[in-house]
Automatic annotation (TrEMBL):
Superkingdom of the source species: Bacteria
EC category: transferase
Classification via Pfam families: Esterase
Protein name: Acyl-CoA:diacylglycerol acyltransferase
Family of this protein: Belongs to the mycobacterial A85 antigen family.
Amino acid sequence: MSHTHTRRTVLATGALLGAGTLLGAAAPAGAEGKVLAERRRDERLVELTIDSPALGGRSTVALLTPRGWDRRKPGDRWPTLYLLAGGDGDHTTWTNLFKVQELPELRDVLVVMPGMPLFGFWTDWWNHGEEGTPRVRTYFLREVMPLVERDYGAGPNRAVAGESQGGFGALGMAARVPGLFGAVAAFGAPVHPVRHPEMWLSGAEYVGVDGYAVFGDPWTRWQTWLDWDPYHHAAGLRRTPVHLASGDGRPGPLDGDEPDPHIPGTEKWVALADEGVVSVTEAVCGEETRMLADRLRSLGAPVTTHFYPGGHSGTYGYRELRRALPVLTAALRR
């Protein structure tokens, strides 16, 4: 959901080939993006402006660079952590709000933070049967990842994390392309959206986006919803360490004084919410996250969890990213 800030040799090659198979005709030849501009924002932060055929326009990818990166030679590679933005598409959340640059554990890691269109859901949109742009998953798998691996030192040891819709994208891609990432983490994410379609369709409408263009009508295009649903593809995560975190929608220590705004169309879930819930969005994310965690445990998957009182404001990402670091960095050290 959108929120307001007031809100991973052979294995590598095989995984990316798997990604191509997954994307199929949705990723035409020559879809790799082109860098239009490269700007240094500070000592470590570099921002790329990309012409993205998959998105049908420009996008921004921020790189938090590791030690020695400025003196890199052809063939130099660093372990790479991909951080996926939430529904607002704002890649700067990771540096401005979650302060990833402060983490000493990532000083020798290349951190890649791509932007995303508003409410893009890290998904290739169905577009009422017309397909076409935005192809957000194609953008990430066929444009961003090949670009940073070819030109900017990203290596085959990869991990991925995301908040909200970014967590959905991280889990979905890791599940659909086993081996692509060594570990994955998701914070406050819609990880089983087919279970609460009205929530996500209403959220899209609330921010001025046609939610039916993303996945289609869940009652007639349910297979499209299942195709992208991380819970439905949980078997693909059986050998991937996963860290899941979510609030329960009740007021928590990092929330502000105001509850989530009312989103028309979510009245059913508001009425069914437990007493004390002020963020029905996070309550639903929490329910879906618990379901995925249980499913992964039943499959024998290596999953860790953290559930806590809190809402969907985005303020918990700072703390939860730090909790997830042992899982993510262990994969990067392999």
